[in-house]
Hints:
By secondary structure, the chain is α+β, with helices and mostly antiparallel strands. The chain has helices at 2-5, 15-31, 85-89, 93-100, 151-161, and strands at residues 34-40, 47-52, 61-68, 71-76, 115-116, 119-120, 123-128, 131-136, 142-144. The chain contains 5 helices and 9 strands. The strands form 3 sheets. A 5-stranded antiparallel β-sheet has the order 1-2-3-4-9. Strands 5-6 form a two-stranded antiparallel ribbon.
Amino acid sequence: MKKLLDNPIYDCISEEDKNFIAAFNEAMLISGYENNGIQPYVVFGKHKIEYYKPGTKNKKYLARVYIRDDGIVLRLYFSDIDKHRNYIENSPDFIKKPFIDNSHDCKMPNCKGMITNGKCRYRKTYTVDGVPRVKCAEQSFMYYGMSMENAARYVELLLEFYPIKNRK
C-alpha cells in the first residue's frame, strides 16, 4: 500500500494522510478485512479504497478511504448502532464524535434521498449518552484529520460491529 501511495498521482495528500492510510490498511488486513486496492472515484474524492468482510455472498463495504485534493476522509458504515451503545459511549472522543455531533442529522421529510412508502433507507436512529439521534447514513460517520497512531482504533470500532470469526 505504501508503494502505491508513493505514486505522483497521490501528491495531493500529505505524508501524514499517506501514513494513516498505510497504518489503517495494515490494521484492516491483519484483522481479516480485505480491499480492492485504490480505485478511481468521483463523488467524495478522486480515488477510494473500499474495505469489506471476506467470505460473504454480497460484498458489503464497511469502510472507505476517500482520497481528495484537500486530504482524506475515512467513512465507516454501521448497522444496529444501539447494540453497540456501551462501546461507543466508552470510546475516545475522536471515535465518538460522528455519533454525537449534529452533522448530517436526518432532514426527512425534506430529504431527497431514498424514501419509499414514507421510510428512508438511509435513516439511522440510535441513542448515545441518553440522547436520541437520527442521522442520514448517506452522509454520516465520516472522520477527518486522522492520525496514524489511532488507525487501529478505527479498525477496533469496525470489529465491534463486524467481527471476523477466523482472524488471520
